[in-house]
């Protein structure tokens, strides 16, 4: 679960100068961060400050919301107590699996947040590598596996079960694809898959944020004789299903939008005095550094 680059011998590095480092098997220039566009044109202090501000603008709000919602979710299950469970447990086995699923999912949420920090990957690649392994092997992988029986036992209707099954399958498959790409040193592909995977990890956060809105919409139709006719069980199932499906679709769209935006060519700017323009017929350096493959 890492995106690190290989070191070069000193002589080779000196000869290459400031050319972008390449990783993987496709010789694509390495990119940095998960939320920033890399800056291959300048390393001035002003540019670095702007980059840090851009990162803080999305990472800090994400961190605050994610930590608060995760802490609230864990409070109902740690320490384990059947009476505080937000999902009605069918049995002690169901509750035990549910607790294991939620705790490992929380590990994935929090370690994935650390993996989203560009500074950690650039300055401490070893920490990024170990955090990534924790994210997958102590978070995503066990949580997705335990999630299979949890989904079967969940008593919130077939629509909710279907959405959770789709989420669980995509979560596991994108995680495996990202891990495989990292093992093969295809780091650009690794980052693409892990952006998708962490977007799926955060579905649990968004679903808790949008559930009050879904509850309000359903409550407005609760007494309608054509809709629910006062059937609170059917209304509860619809709330669970609509919430989970809405969060899943929203995150799938957001992840693909982010990936497309990161790979979108940027307008070429006139070369500054003293710089070498791009060779005829070649893609601009900025565009090359932003290109990712799905």
TrEMBL record:
Pfam families noted in UniProt: DUF2306
Low complexity bias spans: 10-46
Polar residues composition-biased segments: 284-294
The keyword Calcium is assigned to this record: no
Domain of life: Bacteria
Transmembrane segment boundaries: 58-79, 91-114, 135-156, 162-179, 199-219, 239-259
Magnesium in keyword set: no
Region spans: Disordered: 1-48, 264-294
Keyword terms: Membrane, Transmembrane, Transmembrane helix
InterPro entries noted in UniProt: DUF2306_membrane
Protein name: DUF2306 domain-containing protein
Species this protein is from: Streptomyces lydicus
